[in-house]
Amino acid sequence: MTGKTSRIDDRYATNEKYTTLRGIYRDAQRHLSEVEWNYLWCGTGDEVTLNDNTAAFDRYRFITPLFAGIDNPDTRTNVLGFDLSFPAFIAPFGGEAVFHPDGHLAIGRAAEAAGIQQMVPVAASFPLEDIAAASSVASIFQMTFVGDEDAVVDLMERVKIAGYKYICITYSPIRQWRERMMEDRFSIRGERGPANFGPGRSDPAALVELLEFKQPRWN
C-alpha cells in the first residue's frame, strides 16, 4: 500500500484565530485589566439574574439529525431583512472607548468584516452620525424613551437621517447597581464627554434623566 494516509478529521487544525466563544472570552480577558473586564462582563446586583438567564439558555438543546453527513454547517441567515454570515448582532454597550480608542467606529468595521450587523447605543463614545459613517452595518440604534417628547423625537430624526434602519427601545438607566463595579470604584476616565448630547446635538436634559432616573418611563 503506497501513498500518504488521509486524515480522518482535520477540522481541529484550523488557521482561524478564534474557534470557540471560550477562546474569545479568554483572549479578551487577557488583554484587559480586572477592572476593565468587570465593566465589560458583569450584570446588575450580585448577578443572580444574570446567572439564572445564562442557565436558562444552557437548557436549550440542538436536535441534531443522525446520519446527516459531516459537512460544515451553513450559518448564514436573514434577520430583519439583513443578510448575516451567522445569527448575531453587536450588542449596544456604551463607554466602549475604555477598550479601544476608536470605540464603536472600530467595532462597526469589525462587524462589517465578520458579516454581521451593529447595534449602536445612545451612550456610545462617538456621535451616532460618525459611527454610521464608519461602516455599512450600523443599522440599529438603541435609545431610551425618557424626558421631553420633542427631545426624543428630535433624536429619532437624527437617527433616521444618519441612515439607521431600526430603533431598539430600552428602559434601563445608565447608572445601575453593579456590585463588581462598586467594589472596583469604577469610573470611566479619558472620555470625550456625552457624544450624542450638547450644543449642535440632542438636548442634554434627556441625558440627565437617563442618569438620574427620576421620572416614570413612558408607557
Features:
219 residues; alpha/beta; TIM Barrel; four-stranded parallel β-sheet; two-stranded antiparallel ribbon; 6 strands; 35% helix; globular
Based on Cα principal axes, name the global outline: globular
**CATH class term:** Alpha Beta
| Number of discrete domains | 1
As an assembly, this protein is: single chain
Content-based structural category:
alpha/beta
Helix-strand blueprint:
Blueprint: H1 21-31, H2 34-40, H3 48-58, E1 77-79, E2 82-84, E3 89-90, H4 103-114, E4 117-121, H5 128-134, E5 138-144, H6 149-162, E6 166-170, H7 179-184, H8 204-212
Parallel strand pairs: 3-4, 4-5, 5-6
Antiparallel strand pairs: 1-2
Helix pairs in contact: 4-5
Please, could you describe this protein's structure?
The protein is of the alpha/beta class and 219 residues long. The protein has one domain (18-68, 76-212): Aldolase class I (TIM Barrel, Alpha-Beta Barrel). Helices cover 35% and strands 11% of the residues. The chain contains eight helices and six strands; from the N terminus they run αααβββαβαβαβαα. Strands 3-4-5-6 form a four-stranded parallel beta sheet, covered by helices on one side. α4 packs parallel to α5. It is globular.
Briefly, what is this?
With 219 residues, this protein is α/β, with parallel strands linked by helices. It is 35% helix and 11% strand.
